[in-house]
From TrEMBL:
Protein name: Uncharacterized membrane protein
Protein location: Membrane
Pfam family name, one: EamA
Species this protein is from: Halogeometricum limi
InterPro entries tied to this protein: AA-Vitamin_Transporters (IPR050638), EamA_dom (IPR000620), EmrE-like (IPR037185)
Superkingdom assignment: Archaea
């Protein structure tokens, strides 16, 4: 599909989450540095956005998930467990370890994995520029690994594996969502509600199984910050699901636009996290290279 034939709404709905998810890691980093915990953050965000989605469905007079087939339920449940529960824990852990600016940049490698999966399982077509994109993207990650920025307490190169795991989880989640939405068996609102409800159940099961009572004993202020993040995330997710549900909303278009979030995170971090993170020119260069590489992968 030619870029000129893609409706403007697809671009707008894909860029909106990038701005939101460029900002939320910054306020989350503030809460994490104030006694918050990655699992607590993930759980709080999912509780808040799940409640908002279910209330929205009920307000529309819909009985949530009543008409969905077992196959559709399975697709969005799996997307919620991998793309939300696992991915969110990993990204919050990444923010805590290496800082919001570095973690967000690494997560933007997601289009590499998402495009590979979309080509293999959804039949989408990737350009030959994918090779060039991979080279640029890997170069960006290499620059980040020696950036000497991010969290002021310091971090090791191996810590980048944590946000990279989040990138893989988010990629799998987005491909599953596109597959489910492309089938036309559900609305974006119902799909995102099911996605987050599945993630909530998975996170609660993990909390109970591991006896993680510490998620309920963090400083009260951190819950408020994560709840605000949950409200913002609710809007961002619905925007992304709506883009993916559109005929022109291919993974190769939506995912790289969403993946520009680290450019906004770097900007917000520079102004709002100067006491917690060091935003160096290498971090800026690495973030730009990762985003450019991700874009080339999906051209």
């Amino acid at each position: 599909m030619d870029a000129a034939s893609v409706p403007l709404a697809v671009y707008a709905l894909s860029l909106a989450p990038a701005v939101v998810w460029g900002f939320t890691p910054v306020i989350e980093k503030r809460a994490l540095s104030g006694g918050g915990r990655p699992l607590q953050a993930a759980l709080t965000v999912v509780v808040v956005d799940t409640i908002l989605y279910l209330l929205a469905l009920l307000a529309r007079g819909e009985v949530p998930f009543a008409d969905l087939s077992a196959e559709t339920l399975a697709v969005f449940v799996l997307a919620g467990v991998l793309g939300t529960a696992v991915g969110r824990i990993a990204i919050f852990a990444g923010n805590a370890r290496v800082g919001a600016s570095v973690s967000s940049a690494v997560v933007s490698a997601r289009p590499l994995f998402a495009t590979a999966l979309a080509v293999g399982f959804l039949g989408e077509v990737a350009s030959l520029t994918t090779v060039a994109g991979i080279v640029v993207l890997v170069g960006g990650l290499a620059v980040l690994s020696v950036a000497k920025g991010g969290d002021l307490s310091g971090w090791e190169t191996r810590d980048l594996l944590v946000p990279l795991a989040a990138a893989v989880a988010f990629a799998v989640g987005n491909v599953l969502r596109r597959f489910g939405l492309d089938a036309g068996a559900t609305t974006p609102l119902e799909a995102v509600a099911l996605n987050e409800l599945a993630a909530l159940v998975a996170l609660l099961a993990y909390v109970v199984a591991r006896g993680r009572r510490d998620v309920f004993t963090a400083p009260p202020r951190t819950y408020l910050v994560f709840a605000v993040s949950g409200v913002l995330t609710a809007g961002a997710l619905l925007s992304m699901f709506t883009a993916l549900s559109m005929p022109a909303g291919r993974i190769a278009i939506v995912d790289p636009l969403v993946a520009t979030a680290p450019l906004f995170t770097t900007l917000f971090s520079y102004f709002l996290l100067s006491d917690l993170e060091r935003v160096t020119w290498r971090i800026v260069a690495g973030a730009v290279l990762v985003v450019v590489g991700a874009a080339l992968v999906t051209v």
